[in-house]
Amino acid sequence: MFPFMDRKKGSWRAPVNDSGELVGYNDLARVSFGIRTVHYLVRETIQNSLDARREDAEGAVLVSFQSFDIPREKFPGREDFQNILERCFLSNREDKKCREAFERAADVLRAERIAVLRISDFRTRGLEGALAGEKGSLWSGLVKEQGFSVQKENDAGGSFGIGKAVVYSCSELRTAFFASLDKDGVESYTGVAKLVSYKDEKERWTTGTVYYSDENKKALLDIFTLDPAFRRRTSGTDIFVMGLVPIEGLEQEMIRAVLDNFLLAIWLGNLEVEIGDHRITKTSLGLYADSLPVEKTAGSPHHKEYYEENRMIQRYARMLLGEDEATQRIELRAAEYGAKYGFPDGAATLFLTRGEGLNRRILMSRHIGMKLFEQKGFPSGIDFTGIFLIKENAMGQAFRRIEVPSHDAWEPGVVQDAAEEKQAKEMYLGLKRYLKEKVRERLMAEEERGVDAFGAGDFLPDLEDAAVRRALAARKGKRREELQSCIEKVRKKKAAASRLSPLHMRSFCVEREKGRYRLSLIAPRKAERVRLELFLAGEQTDVPVKLLAASLSGRARAKLARFEKNVIELQNVAKGAKLFVDYTMDYRDYCLMEVKYVENPGASGAVSVAGEDE
User: Fold this and answer.
1) In the chain, how many domains are there?
2) Containing domain of residue 490, as a range?
3) What is the gyration radius of the CA atoms in the chain, in angstroms?
4) Core-most of 71, 128, 400, 533, by most CB within 10 Å?
């Protein structure tokens, strides 16, 4: 043990950037996740804990979120850190946002007590690799590496990627300590502060990341005793978020985030979560789901979609717990889907239920039980919801390969090899066909299946075509020949329109630092007025943007009428016009956009189409 004695005493150390890139406050690892901060904090940390489960562990992985505060004197290396904050301020004083952030950070560090959030997991391996500190280890992936996606296991739920930045976004000091007792008995801890580049005492610019570590910026090999009420005795990892950002209703938002993201993991017995005095387990799952608010109250910061999502979480819980009598459980048969790709019978389970007002989506998940996304694009004319759980390892790995880094979509384009990408597209398209067919087969009456055959569900797959549904309802009881004639007319009309579907939109970033973006689209038909509504797309909730400028580029066959808030209005839009809309918004980072295209708003026959950027 003697060679490691010097690794018990730490201090704050800032690597110099050797005349390299300077990091500002708006760097990706330092941006705020906004109102979704709690959601992402819970999702990312629990995902990592599930992936680090010990093979010899008995029982569910336990993740605990506990808030406490410490006297300012207990902050490790406080005086040195205070000097670092001052240097950050002085070296970047021309940046107003940076100046205000470090003034606030200095106030937090000067306060009598400092708020801390401890996130601990149990029955996990701990941060293996802390002793050597080599690239690719669990310790390096969480503590040192940035921009890499360190895959823990072939069938893991995720990887140490960009999402770990949310830990720092929850800290007014942009600082966290990572402590661990690994499965081999190695105790370690490291402090990391994601700040900005600043000039050190020798007038050298730093990288912007500061470590509380040994002289080689490796982990300190000692016990970390920041929380007086906690002492780790079994393997696992503890994350201490220093200077926790005040968040109203923090515990309730955490409970909601756990249920939203890990309902299946808890139901499967893979996960239990402690939040303060609350403990969410398979037996208490229904009680916590039922406690979610489903009606918007005065002064609530949440959109109505937030409460609609809560209602869906409650419905998913009832489906899993056997409390929804209409739920059908369908085991995958390889002959229907999967044999071509080597997936056996029973590789996945589909849960379906029907009911008024349901979201017409299927929650998608792999065996670990983390929610990935809700699959859209199902037949119109039926209110239903579902859950699709991939259980078998080979099928899970196949779809894991086409997951985007944020683990909230499947995109075959992430596969580098052209032949493999083609097969991945076929695999995913085949799964979507299978799911659509099961919805038709299990939930739709015979007359509804006939109606959907002419394409009401396949044209603009995410469109709620209310007009078609009203027309079909009015035709009930008519003769088959008359209905077939109507079907043929609608089929021809739909086929003509689909060639110019406004869902073929593309929104891309032109200049990130200035918040400049461009939207390209093809108008499907002539319209006197068109309204474009722009949103930042979240996994569950879309947030309206704030537009600062808007204009039309090129030889546009339309006119820009006005813009305000998140709305751009166009006039005299020609059929088939290819439009390029340049806009600037009060958000300066890469993002996913949701755009709603509304023709002749306010008219009785207004058509609304939603599309996402590609």
Assistant:
1) 5
2) 449-498
3) 27
4) 400
